[in-house]
Amino acid sequence: MSHTPHELAVEFPAHVVRMHDLKGTNAHFARLCDEYHEVNRAIHRAESRAEVVTEEHESMLRRQRLALKDQIATMLEA
After folding, report:
1. How much is the mean pLDDT over the chain?
2. Structurally, how many domains does the chain consist of?
3. Which of 25, 29, 48, 73 pairs with 39 at a CA distance of 20 to 30 A?
């Protein structure tokens, strides 16, 4: 497992199997997960100062991650 905080398996531990299944059968869900991971890693790089970003950009990334997480949660609960 990654050391990056907020990975989907950590955020939704009860849905790990369902996430795996949906990634294989639902292209939209797979794209949302890929985008979530990309944004989450960008936030982690900003937090760890590996990449310098403005406070506004980091805030925008956090809002984007939350929106993606909400969409993923909705699909997991469906």
Report:
1. 94
2. 1
3. 25
